[in-house]
Design brief:
The protein is of the alpha+beta class. The protein has 3 helices and 5 strands. The chain has one domain: Ubiquitin-like (UB roll) (Roll). It has a 5-stranded mixed sheet. The longest helix is centred in the middle third of the chain and has 8 residues. The radius of gyration is 12 Å and the shape is globular. The termini are far apart. 28% of the residues are buried. The structure holds FE2/S2 (inorganic) cluster. The site of FE2/S2 (inorganic) cluster has 14 residues, from loops.
Length: 103
């Protein structure tokens, strides 16, 4: 499955994803990806991404802890998600995200 990732410089990349991994686990392997400092514990917000508006409604909505952490970010948009809280499945082939700015 492919994921399309726009980095902080605005360059778009086609990235190989894998069903069963968290989106964060794919993004942290990239030079232009996310830091994911807490390792997916939903406590650092360094895995923040903007999900393409065509995709955002198709994802399982954020749990309260993700929503609270997103609220602490200045750069939160309506399509903000923490990539460690998105479990990839084959239905996500073509998922398109943008790496959010560092905070
Ligand atoms: S990796 Fe820390 S909140 Fe997602």
């Amino acid at each position: 499955m492919k994921i399309r990732v726009t980095d902080r410089d605005g360059t778009s990349h086609a990235v190989e994803g894998q069903a069963g991994l968290k989106l964060m686990e794919v993004l942290r392997e990239l030079d232009y990806g996310v830091e994911a400092l807490c390792g997916g514990m939903c406590s650092c917000a360094t895995c923040h991404v903007y999900v393409d508006t065509d995709w955002i409604d198709g994802l399982a909505p954020p749990e309260d802890d993700e929503d609270d952490l997103l609220d602490s970010l200045e750069g939160r948009h309506t399509n903000s998600r923490l990539s460690c809280q998105i479990l990839l499945g084959e239905e996500h082939d073509g998922l398109t995200v943008t790496i959010a700015p560092e905070e």
